[in-house]
Write a structure and sequence with these properties.
Elements (H helix, E strand, L loop, with lengths): L9 H22 L20 E2 L9 H4 L9 E8 L15 E7 L6 E5 L5 E4 L3 E4 L2 H19 L10 E6 H10 L3 E5 L3 E3 L14 E3 L2 E5 L1 H9 L6 H16 L4 H6 L1 H11 E3 L4 H14 L4 E4 L4 E3 L2 E3 L2 H12 L10 E4 L22 E3 L1 H12 L7 E3 L1 E3 L3 E2 L5 E6 L5 E10 L6 E7 L12 E5 L2 E8 L2 E8 L4 E5 L8 H9 L1 E3 L4
Parallel strand pairs: 1-12, 2-7, 4-13, 16-24
Antiparallel strand pairs: 2-3, 3-4, 5-6, 7-12, 8-11, 9-10, 14-15, 17-19, 18-28, 20-22, 21-22, 22-23, 23-27, 24-25, 25-26, 26-27
Helix pairs in contact: 1-6, 1-9, 4-5, 4-8
Amino acid sequence: MSDGPDDAPPGVAWGLYRRFALGGLLIVLLTAVGTATAALMEIKGTLVDPLQPIVDPPRGPKLENVLADVPSGKPQTLLLLGSDIRYADRGTVKGLSDTLILVRLDPDKGATSVMSLPRDLKVQIPGYGTDKINAAYSLGGPTLAVRTVKALLGTPDRPFDVHHVVNVNFGGFRRAVDRLGCVYADIDRRYFNDNDPPAGGGPDYATIDVPAGYQRLCGQDALDYVRYRHFDSDLVRAARQQDFLRQAKDQIGISRLVSDRDELLEIFGRYTQTDIKSTGAVLRLLKLVYRATGKPLAEIRFPAFDVGDHLEIGADDLRRVRERFLDARAAPAARGRTRSTSSPTRRAQRPRSARRSTVPRGLFADRRTAEDLGVRLGVKLAFPVYFPRWAALGADYRAQDSRTYDLFDRDRRRHRAYRLVVKAPGVGQYYGVQGTTWKDPPILRSPSETRRIAGRTYELYFDGSRLRMVAWRTERAAYWVHNTLLQSLSNAQMLGIAESLTRVGAD
């Protein structure tokens, strides 16, 4: 019996192709640049290649000579490049690669690895010396980008192989998001820039106006959000992209892909270039994605550090992150598990009225500031507002970013919502408390586990071992605490903040 699509009969191929299309979309969403692999085929079952090939520069190494061959069914690593321009036939690029993401498809591992390489990372570019990694694309297109990644992550005794490249224009991402019905995303704070010329000169950043809170983002706003880097670091920007795309891939169903297949293929063909063009290469990748479809996604964070105008990484950290990427593991938490536990602030269960006043380590008591902000929000709402009595050390409540608003689901039903925004220590680090009368939004699907603490049932959402979100529900609304983009709050801090949520007006 066949274990994949290489020898699947025509009647079975349709089902396999649907799964491959979904797998391709997941890869695409993780790149913030659009779908690539799904565009390699006609959904009806006939393989086609609407994508444009990557054109090599007139001189220097050819792309096919720097990519590794891979037997059918063996693991593959894809390098996904995103930019605002196309690689010209004459082999020159007027611009930089805006996004570099590696995806590792290995069905024998516990998860599919996804790792963003910060574009400001200082590296050795073969033949050009030291520069930021995104300069490789400008100097030599996708071919030099591949060589640079291989040089960065490879060692003399263990080379790092890249098997395929996908180069996508950001215009494809914008159009694909619109075509797929937009994406609900949890926005940590307000992102705003009206592009007025800065006093005394300075960088000219793109216009953006995306408020804080859980909301539906469509094409241009989604693109502005994932590409924003004003007042942020490159690491925060990469984390924002992955967070948005993790939420996106959980919302895109196969029915949407099937119904919009013609339009999506046209979008992908216009905006995407790739080396994947032969039927054999398509089938090998198809078989691999088919086997890996059921695996969770592991976001591998690249542990670079800021050094002035660029980022660097130590040799030991580079070795460890490479190993994590090649040996992806699923999050340890079991989905759907429910258990009772003590809170991070006490050993034994206590009724809510008997809560201890001791502040957990890493938090401080700031009830008055939070309650004043909660009262201000509550006067505009007809459902209870909860505020945290405890905040992370060094945190600052952002009244100017916090707000109340209307939130509409996909059936255009109106729900009320509020977002309380807190600035945490560190560049671009914000966590928040969200409340909404929409009691089953997409973000609350499939918690890692549920935990009963002092009379409340919390839904816990993990990324690996790190607690990304803590949610709970009442008869009237749903509430959650969302960690920062770099998940800088510890698990104990997240649970402590969630447990300290107190209703406005309660003693």
